[in-house]
Amino acid sequence: MATKITNDLVFRNLPRRAPESHKGSYGKVLALCGCSKYRGAAALCVCGALRAGAGLVTLAAEESVISAVAQRVMEPVYLPLPDEDGLSLAASKSTVCVAGCGKEATPATAQEMKTALGASSGTVVLDAGGLCSLADDKLFLMGLSGRLIVTPHPGEMARLTGRSVREIEADRGATALSFARESGAVTVLKGHRTLVATPWGELYENGTGNAGLARGGSGDILAGIIAGLAAQGLEPWQAAVCGVYLHGLAADRCARRLSMQGMLPSDILADLRAIFLENNR
Ligand SMILES: NC(=O)C1=CN([C@@H]2O[C@H](COP(=O)(O)OP(=O)(O)OC[C@H]3O[C@@H](n4cnc5c(N)ncnc54)[C@H](OP(=O)(O)O)[C@@H]3O)[C@@H](O)[C@H]2O)[C@@H](O)CC1
Ligand SMILES: Nc1ncnc2c1ncn2[C@@H]1O[C@H](COP(=O)(O)OP(=O)(O)O)[C@@H](O)[C@H]1O
Q1: CATH of domain 3-13+25-278
Q2: Residue 103: helix, strand or coil by DSSP?
Q3: Which of 40, 43, 60, 130 could be 99's S-S partner, Cβ–Cβ 3.0 to 4.6 Å?
Q4: Could you tell me if 204 and 2 are in contact, meaning their C-beta atoms sit under 8 angstroms apart?
Q5: Is 103's C-beta closer than 6 angstroms to any atom of ligand 1?
Q6: For residue 1, what pLDDT band results from cuts at 50, 70 and 90?
């Protein structure tokens, strides 16, 4: 039986900003995201992390991605790739690594993921191509146990488990719970009524969100939001539960403002900001 995620559960777990704090108090996010084909995914992920409240966000990516993102957003710091030593160092200094949004599931991506995530000691949010590139390396994923959050949609979960999307959708709860138990990762199985499963057998169901989110880029923002929350000290399960709820709530507010038909993933960032304001954050 899944626990419904409520507004009270979320805002009880969200830290407040203390008057005497500084940017270091809210964590450093390293985003290893984007490729020349998927530049927007990196921008959306970075913006999600920033808007969720992270203190400092660094984007590690190839130059074409960095120049595209830098035209849209002023706040990130950039680490141009390839730079294996620089990537290991940045990962080792980060509070959270969010990796894989806008990456293709290739052996080169898998190697890049291993370099960064192996050097990090903080929370890891693994999404999209980064996650799928490691689908056959369960041992590596298990090595991140206790600090890993994975965010597959059903198609990605199919690749991770070798099962069909139909089988996964037929029993979403059991799928998420068994993947979480076997991998040691907090598992966010996305879609209508996103589920969050913990390795110790808890299952949360999210009731926020709408079909306006059913367009490319919504998941990239979610990964960024979860990373931004984890950077502020939330445990992986808390960051996942709060992230999926706030992402969906922002989308619901956005749909009332702009319509499900016309809203864009990036539009929900203004609503996320408004939700924080309405809840005195
Ligand atoms: N602006 C940008 O830069 C953007 C960049 N992006 C980046 O693109 C990369 C590829 O990511 P991807 O998700 O688009 O493609 P892929 O991994 O092939 O998975 C799709 C397969 O899964 C299946 N599927 C089944 N159920 C599903 C469900 N509920 N939700 C979704 N899919 C579902 C689906 O089935 P179908 O739709 O055909 O029925 C299909 O067979 C990745 O790095 C991502 O970050 C995107 O975020 C877009 C914006
Ligand atoms: N019909 C829907 N109702 C609620 N949420 C949805 C719906 N369709 C998609 N979403 C949400 O939008 C996001 C889509 O993520 P994903 O499929 O990874 O897209 P992308 O990789 O293109 O960013 C997920 O958070 C998912 O839960």
Answers
A1: 3.40.1190.20
A2: coil
A3: 130
A4: yes
A5: yes
A6: confident
SS3 content of the chain, % helix, strand, coil (to 5): 55, 15, 30
As given in the structure block, the two tokens for residue 264 are 């864009």
Overall residue count recorded for the chain in this entry: 281
Residue nearest to atom 22 of ligand 2 (CA): 216
> How far is residue 74's CA from residue 27's CA, in Å, rounded to a whole number?
18
Q: What is the mean pLDDT of the chain?
A: 98
Task: Report d(CA 195, CA 73) in Å as an integer.
Answer: 31
**C-alpha neighbours within 13 Å on the C-beta side of residue 21:** 14
Q: Where along the chain do its domains lie?
A: 3-13+25-278
Q: Which ligand 1 atom is nearest residue 127's CA?
A: 45
- Residue 60 near residue 81 (C-beta atoms within 8 A): yes
Question: How far is the C-alpha of 72 from the C-alpha of 195, rounded, in Å?
Answer: 32
Strand, coil or helix: 83: coil
Q: What is the pLDDT of residues 99-145, one digit of tens each?
A: 999 999 999 999 999 999 999 999 999 999 999 999 999 999 999 99
Residue 102 beta carbon below 6 angstroms from any ligand 1 atom: yes
Is the Cα torsion angle 33, 39, 43, 45 positive or negative in sign? Answer: negative
Work out which ligand 2 atom sits closest to the CA atom of 216.
22
One DSSP character per residue, 209-252 reads --GGG-STTHHHHHHHHHHHHHHTT--HHHHHHHHHHHHHHHHH
Pocket test for ligand 1, best of 220, 222, 264, 266 (most atoms within 8 A of CB): 220
| CA-based nearest residue to 218, from 165, 255, 177, 172 | 255
3-state SS string for 121-140: CCEEEECHHHHHHCCCCHHH
